Amino acid sequence: MTERQFIPMIRAAREGCQERIRGGFPLQEHWSILRPAMADPLAISLPRLRTHLEALSRFGRNPDGRGITRSCWSGAHEEARAWLLGRMKEAGLSTWVDEAGNTFGRLGNGGPSVITGSHIDTVPNGGPLDGALGVLAGLECLQTIHESGARTRLPLMVVAWSDEEGRYAGLFGSSAFAGKLDAKQIPRLRAADGERLVDAMARAGFNAYDAPKARCNPKTLSAYVELHIEQGPHLETAKIPIGVVEGIVGNRRNWVTFRGQSDHAGTTPMAWRRDAFMAAAEYALRARRLIITKGSGRSVTNFGRVEVGPGVSNIVPDRCVLLHEMRELEPRVLARLERQCLALARSVAKKWRLKVTVDPISKSQPARCAPRVMRCVEAAAAGLKLKVKRMPSGAGHDAQNLALVTDSGMLFIPSQGGRSHRPDETSDWRAIERGANTLLYTLLELAG
I need a labelling partner for 400 at 20 to 30 A (CA). Which of 7, 188, 243, 269 fits? Predict the structure, then answer.
């Protein structure tokens, strides 16, 4: 076949594919059109992706060899950022880091960008895939496209968002990028151990007060898609390889502080005590019951930290602080639950003759994923003959901030045992390969 005959055939095949996608036909039909013209379908390199995942997991590895602690702005995180920038450059991407600490690599120029990515910070004693998979699979997809010589109509970008895990502020980097970072809050943002965000960023060479400058121009964006482990058991239980995310929960994180009166624990009658811990314990139990019974059925809550003062056995606690989080997909339900929990805290404090304060740490709004991105993920999976399941995300992700400025979506792969945010977090390598190839064809479709 001559080049003159070959090029029109490819063009006609591609136009046929696009027409069928617009008409809602499954992608198997596109593949049957393209297959005669393709000697080897494009695919990511699993060995290279595995090498990158294993290399990144060494940054912040705990001394016992189990678990990773790589909080944003830490020395381990900044070493990982430098390593990632090196891999992006090796892949043929142009690179930069914005004022909020988001790390970018781009392939191509001109037109609004199609973005993929996630984050490289971890929770304390976390695993190797949460966030890291989305960044490195995105990098692998762009490198595969670059090496193939393929050209897309729109440029492609991969990004590692800063402080997704919320040591200082949940989804910090993507919040700045989406223009929802409140500059007035920056001096007040602190980690649970009291370290200020401005100090942590300064140590890493950033000026926290410049972070709002990272705000994007939405006109430069075409779509965002994020690959992630599910972090739950549903896909593995159903034996379905790809989850198509319909929406991402919002959350509310608050410090709830009960203040009572310290007294001698041996001589003060029980009825006289103004025990801050007992009030906090009652609040925690009743708030849990409220969210189970008055929520949507998918509403969840957690108390991840408790501080009791003065913290000795022979003094009645005069202070108890709870780190309270709640999550829900429906905005109205989430707002109502937050109001009800605030009223409950005041009621419990009054009962125990205490004072209570509720100080917000962070909040994120629920987000619905863009139908266009969901259809592209489903079409890519169908072309690879992979079953899909539409599902909500019970965890927060940067994709919900990107939904404020562009069409945003996510795809999940199964987590073994539903495990995440722990050292034994893992997914099968074949599952990782399937997810990365689904991401690859999703990006190709979104970028034309």
Answer: 188
Tokens standing for residue 403: 């939904």
Q: In the numeric block, which tokens belong to residue 238?
A: 């159903």
Rounded Cα distance between 205 and 81, Å, is 13
* CA atoms in the 13 A half-sphere facing the CB of 225: 35
Q: What is the tens place of the pLDDT at every residue in 217-261?
A: 999 999 999 999 999 999 999 999 999 999 999 999 999 999 999
**Maximum distance among all alpha carbons in the chain?**
98
Structure tokens at 119: 């984050």
User: Domain check: are 288 and 228 in the same one?
Assistant: no
Question: What's the full length of the chain, in residues?
Answer: 448
- Give the integer Cα–Cα distance in Å for 227 and 129: 11
- Tell me, what CATH number does 413's domain have? 3.40.630.10
In a domain, 6, yes or no: no
Whole-number Å distance between alpha carbons of 250 and 326: 8
Q: Which of 415, 411, 413 is nearest to 443 (CA)?
A: 411
Q: What is the dihedral of CA 214, 218, 222, 225, to 10 degrees?
A: 50
Residues 348 and 423 in one domain: no
Identify each DSSP E strand in 98-205 by its residue range: 103-107, 113-119, 156-161
User: Domain ends where: 312, 338, 364?
Assistant: 364
| Residue span of the structural domain in which 302 resides | 251-364
Summarize pLDDT for 328-380 with one digit per residue, the tens: 999 999 999 999 999 999 999 999 999 999 998 878 889 999 999 999 999 99
168 and 73 share one domain = yes
Cα→Cα distances 140→91, 146, 388, Å: 8, 10, 22
Please give the span between the terminal C-alpha atoms of the chain, in angstroms, as a whole number.
25
**Residues 9, 5: Cα–Cα separation, whole Å:** 7
Q: Is the omega angle on the peptide bond into residue 112 within 30 degrees of 0, that is, cis?
A: no
Q: What is the pTM of this model?
A: 0.81
* Residue 159 · residue 104 · CB < 8 Å: yes
Contact 210, 99 (CB under 8 A): yes
Residue 165 CB partners (closer than 8 Å, separation 6+) = 71, 72, 119, 121, 122, 123, 131
